[in-house]
Design brief:
Blueprint (H helix, E strand, L loop, with lengths): L1 H31 L5 H13 L8 H14 L10 E3 L6 E5 L1 H4 L5 H13 L6 H18 L6 H13 L9 H7 L3 E5 H21 L1
Antiparallel strand pairs: 1-2, 2-3
Length: about 210
């Protein structure tokens, strides 16, 4: 009986901690991106859980796409941050192409980190992600957020998960307001290879 009670208490504590993590993530996103929709919260969460949306086999094609993005994007349009964690657990980071434009890191370094991140781990199943999302959306529902198109976005997400898909784009409102241009990098690679360079540059800027 005591063992069952301890297991029950442990599960309840885990649920409470997880709900707090979801709420903290959502509130921070709302503060940073007041124009976001549920689609954008979902995207950050699946990036955190699933990583990059595609395995990368053609480096030249990925580089060409990054080159085009760099050539057609003004630094004034980009969000002021160099990086931000994805989702609730921060398994991956979004690294802004601002870091390249401001010569914080090289294009080749970010490209290499992105490709290795996309290919380094076995991708979780969509079924496991769907179960995870149902837990997350259960907490978000209880927050009673007044996000635009909330029910439509929720139904759309359910529809793609039901057919074995999971990846979506940012909402039009998010793209228009925030011009998201970044690459997803696995946490270990980011913390070992990119974060020290970004922090060193930031420290240098504060000194001079």
């Amino acid at each position: 009986m005591k063992k069952i009670a301890l297991i029950t208490i442990s599960l309840l504590c885990s649920i409470v901690i997880q709900a707090q993590g979801v709420k903290g993530f959502v509130n921070k996103q709302l503060q940073t991106y007041p124009q976001l929709r549920l689609l954008d919260l979902y995207k950050s969460c699946f990036q955190d859980y699933m990583g990059a949306e595609h395995l990368v086999s053609d480096r030249q094609r990925v580089k060409a796409y990054l080159d085009e993005e760099l050539n057609t994007t003004s630094i004034d349009d980009l969000m002021p941050w160099n990086y931000e964690p994805c989702g609730i657990d921060s398994n991956y980071y979004r690294v802004s192409i601002r870091t390249i434009k401001e010569s914080v890191i090289s294009e080749d370094l970010l490209l290499d980190a992105f490709i290795r991140s996309a290919n380094s781990k076995k991708r979780p199943t969509v079924d496991s992600w769907r179960d995870r999302w149902h837990v997350i959306i259960g907490t978000i529902d209880k927050m009673q957020l007044e996000l635009p198109y909330y029910q439509q976005d929720k139904a759309f997400i359910d529809s793609i998960l039901s057919v074995g898909r999971y990846a979506i784009s940012h909402s039009p409102e998010y793209r228009e307001a925030y011009h998201p241009h970044y690459r997803i990098v696995e946490r270990g690679i980011f913390e070992r290879e990119l974060k020290p360079l970004i922090e060193r540059k930031a420290l240098w800027n504060t000194r001079f």
